[in-house]
Structure formats: C-alpha cells, structure tokens
Write a structure and sequence with these properties.
- The structure is a single chain.
- It is built from 2 helices and 7 strands, in the order ββαββαβββ.
- By secondary structure, the chain is an alpha+beta fold.
- The chain has one domain: Alpha-Beta Plaits, CATH 3.30.70.100.
- The strands form 2 sheets. Strands 5-2-4-3-7 form a 5-stranded mixed β-sheet, covered by helices on one side. It has a two-stranded antiparallel ribbon with strand order 1-6.
- The radius of gyration is 13 Å and the shape is globular.
Length: 98
Amino acid sequence: MKPLHPDHALETLSVLVEGKVQGVGFRAATVRRAHGLKLGGWVRNLPDGRVEALVQGPHAEVDQMLSWLLQGPPAARVTGVRHEEVRTERHYDRFEQI
C-alpha cells in the first residue's frame, strides 16, 4: 500500500454482501473479477456468514464491480449488498483475499 496522491481519482467503497455467499467460491471469484477490472482492495468472510470487501479504483470500474457483487459467482445466492464510500489515505495496488 502506498499513500494516495492528493489529486487522486480513485473511489474506495466498503461493501457487505449477504446471502449464501460462503462456501461457494465467492471470495476467489471476487478476486478474479477485481483483477480483471484492475481494482485494489481485499475480500474476506465474516463470522456471521456475510462477505466483506474493500474495493478501490476509478469510479467506472468500482461501479462494474458493485454490479457484479449483486449477483456474485453462479453458486452464490446474494440477498443484499450494502456499501458506503470510505475516505482513506491508502492506495491498494492489488486486490487480495484475506
């Protein structure tokens, strides 16, 4: 991670995904999709069965990722997605599963 340049054009979203999203390859598929969109951030399982992600990149690509998270991989059954913009000084240069 590197500090963001003051004139950065990156958007950072915190995302919570609910439904049947654990045990279905959701995190691995999220990493592949994020890599394809050249996004930074991370994804992880939460103890309550949800998946949490931090997604960072240009607005258009972040928007595409958010649209994808509404469905997820074929075996997932997403019932809800909540997101909010996060202010951060960090620049994530890759997307990973944690």
